[in-house]
Amino acid sequence: MSSVATTEPAIARGTRASIRGRMQDALPKIVLAPSFAITVIFVYGFILWTIYLSFTNSKTFPSYAITGARSYQRLWRWTFESDPPSSWYTSITNMGIFGVLYIGICLALGLLLAILLDQKIRGEGILRPIFLYPMALSFIVTGVAWKWFLDPGLGLEQTLHQLGWTSFHFDWIKNKDFVIYTVVIAGVWQASGFVMAMFLAGLRGIDGEIMKAAQIDGATTVQLYRRIIIPLLRPIFLSAFIVLAHMAIKSYDLVVALTSGGPGGSAWLPSNFMYEYTFKRNEMAVGSASAVIMLMTISAIIVPYLYSELKEKGR
Amino acid sequence: MLKLMSSTAIAGMLLLGAGIAHAADVKEVQMLHWWTSGGEAAALNVLKGDLSKEGYAWKDVPVAGGGGDAAMTALKAMVAAGNYPTASQMLGYTVLDYAQAGVMGDLTETAKKEGWDKSVPAALQKFSVYDGKWVAAPVNVHSVNWLWINKAVMDKIGGTEPKTFDDLIALLDKAKAAGVVPLALGGQNWQEATMFDSIVLSTGGPEFYKKAFNDLDEESLKSDTMKKSFDNLAKIVTYVDPNFSGRDWNLATAMVIKGDALVQVMGDWAKGEFVAAKKTPGNDFLCYRFPGTDGSVIYNSDMFGMFNVPEDRKAAQVALATATLSKSFQSAFNVVKGSVPARTDVPDTDFDACGKKGIADLKAANDGGTLFGSLAQGYGAPPAIANAYKDVVSKFVHGQIKSSDEAVKQLVQAIDDAK
Fold first, then answer.
1. Sheet (strand B140-143) strand order
2. B58 - beta bridge partners?
3. CB–CB of A47/A295 below 8 Å?
4. Residues of A in contact with B417 (CB under 8 A)
5. Cβ of B69 under 8 Å from any chain A Cβ?
6. What is the pLDDT of residues B196-218, one digit of tens each?
7. Where do transmembrane segments lie in this chain (chain A) (predicted)?
8. B167 or A79: which carries more pLDDT confidence?
């Protein structure tokens, strides 16, 4: 009897403690559950849904009867029978041109600006925000501003003609073969200052002792940058690359604002293609198929990268 | 579940329509439209005035963009999310698409009472009646095959009305020699395709146009006549200023209004811009049918698609529909808009010379069976096909498609793909 009396509170205390313990364990899960559920449905659920739609013949509204891979066949045919270039072919070649040039030039220009700005020059405090602030503008604003600036009847060409240089000719924005390069120009103008800021932070973070040691060893400035500083900036390169790459892939608005798609759709990126076909042309199945191909392309790059990153961490 | 996901997906992706159609009021009309240019906005004010007299508030949902692409995207988001507007400006096959999806209301009762069956041309009823039910109220009939000419420039170069396509080319040559931009064109695909509609009708004649662009007959689409049409398009595009790509249609009209350009090939909504700029036909500008198309009308019609709104908003919808098709509104609205009434029993007393010609042409074409739907404007075939067509024409104009042989091949292929 007495033993029962003594054990009862002990059991009660034990369960109370374990309830609190379990609550403590569960609390983060409970708090995270809604956002987790939302992510699962609205990201992964819709990815699956898009994949499903790409195998139907959805037009204006989704239809759910599977009709096979006709949309993919159309995309592939458009890719390989490419004379004259189909919109899909144009979109993916534009993505290649834009991606390589945009990322390449931004990195090069950003690094150059950062190195120049790092020479302890006067007025750095004024120059840095001037270079950085284009980043504060949205792509729409950048697009419209550059659209006017590059328009032969309004902007640069017209101004120079009025100033007397009448042979000056610059109509890339109206030219189907060059219009994608104007997108590169506007994009680089916007993002290179941001890349500069990243590199500048990286440069400031380099240990002065290393540089001093190198200078004592007789390294010239060029050697100093080439052999020591730039290699030390490798992590910055990587993060700048990732930021720029995702901006390149999603830069739908820049194309629309700057070129409204370009003459005959010649400035389209895959995102423009996807949007046009899904929402404007009432060819939802083809739009979905293009979205799936975009996703697979990006996964093909990102998954190996993530895998190698995680593997390194695991070690 | 899938249906729910589809609705949320589209709504979420577009982030449009949110907050537009909440808090519906019984005495309120919500109207989604893309009439944002000067002439168009003025025309819409007529309807706003008529409805406010009856005590209905007007809730505007304007989505800018000449061809209505952006507006249709916004509408899709609203409908998918179950946020039906009272009515939306819509074109041809889009009405049928939505009717098929079962989201349109039923106005048959009102239509019977008002006798729409008799007064609205049969060609329009094809798009405003679905499965025996009236689902849309046609607002006007536009015709696409017009030339708009600046009279001062025309006088300066000593031009006369072009009767054939070759006349037109000769006229454009004169303008070129006089140092004026001969042809004002906006390099957007719907504008290029709208012009091409007229060229095909001019080159191939009414029978050919109907077979190729309404019946989508493959033989006609790949015929030599179609090739000739593309050659004519190539010819006419050489008269455009180099800066035309991406220009809005009303800016091209402004070039003609200001005398910077001689002629624009555009639907009669261009007249609304002339009228808004206080110009009168005969004195300041001239309107001719596109050479070789006199007697036929390529039409499109703005319709107010009526959605399946809850009971408490039905009265407002009926009021809107009745007001839209009343003779007085049809006359007043179309005088401002540049188009002609969507019913054949409206007197043409208030219309200017171009409007009177338009009304007479429409009547003649309706009686003579030469009233054809414009493929570029979504009255020849469903949107997917119309867009495929616009794509090919635009690529041809901008030189991605280099020969008319190739263009014809692409056209057949694109239309086949989109079916």
1. B340-341, B140-143, B297-300, B371-373
2. B29
3. yes
4. 74
5. yes
6. 999 999 999 999 999 999 999 99
7. 30-52, 95-118, 130-149, 178-203, 224-249, 284-307
8. B167
